[in-house]
Amino acid sequence: MDQSAKLNDEAGQTLLDASHYRISYFDRGSDQLVITFNSMGQILEDDFGRHFFKSINISQINVACSHKDFFQSLSRESFLQAVSSVIAQHSDIVFYGTSLGGYAAIYFGSLLNARILAIAPRLPIHNYMEGLRSYHPDIELLHTDLNQVNSMQNSVLVVFDPEDEADSKFVSYFLTGRKNTRLITLNGAGHFILKQLNAINMLGPCIEGFIRSGDFGEDAIDVSAFTQPRRAKAEAALNHGDLAAARIEIEYLIKIRTGHDPFMTPWGLVKQYVELCDEIDIELPHILPTEHATLSRRMGQPSTPQKMMEAIIKHNYLTCQYQACLSLAELARVRYPESQIARTYVDKARIVIGKIGPN
């Protein structure tokens, strides 16, 4: 059995299971224990970072919550009662999470004399988010306000991008002046810091370094490799007509983008790139397509097979996969004769292929 299969076969012990949250324990025989919290978009069956912590042999408790629960159904008392016997078996405790999970790591970690790593922490249901895109005022805040939570002598490390408005507000509202809190700023990283670090092969070293020794290793992070600087490089290359350089940056941006973060959605650059290729009459090289899941989010999670097919047709055209666009549009036109999108993109793809040839 290969290593990845072993990781996937790992079974955990359920410490607490309710309709809106689940706490699981993975005993790997280490003195250290990391307590992780799922981020938004994950479900009860997900365990944040499980494969990574398995690969470095660190025992783990994972806390998951259901969609739009935001950990509000889990009280600090219930959490502590569920995990206290496991915590007693370990000498070094680290709470860790990102985004919503980062908030939860601070909130629940304040109960114990533990180290806390919160990356881009965010609580979308709190009124500090009012006016921002991710605000969820429809969900009731049941937790004690973080400003009113008395913490023990724990050490908190917060990693965030001060240029991200929502994350900067969280730090300003909840953490300014908080004792034993250290801030690491990664300008240009945006909210999805884990994905940015992973793209430059720094995620594992940073997390493991903090868990084992308290050293996040921020001095080794090249912030110029993050999305915003590379987006600027793409724009500069396009403005100077350097298509080869622009393509490298655009492919990178498409590859790592997540959700609807404007700094990670380079479709405007793709459009400018395509228009420039067309203007100077050269063949359009293939641009790396996105993952299917990301495509689904971008297209609003199409609810029917027809809508999904139409979304992929548009995606193929936008990423210069004209032959794939044409083939799928022709098939969609047969299956769904009423589809205006299929008819439109058959014509559009044929025009481009007639000009540049099949790609």
TrEMBL record:
Organism: Hirschia baltica (strain ATCC 49814 / DSM 5838 / IFAM 1418)
Organism superkingdom: Bacteria
A Pfam family hit: UPF0227
SUPFAM superfamilies reported in the protein's UniProt record: alpha/beta-Hydrolases
Stored InterPro entries: AB_hydrolase_fold, UPF0227/Esterase_YqiA
UniProt-recorded name of the protein: Uncharacterized protein
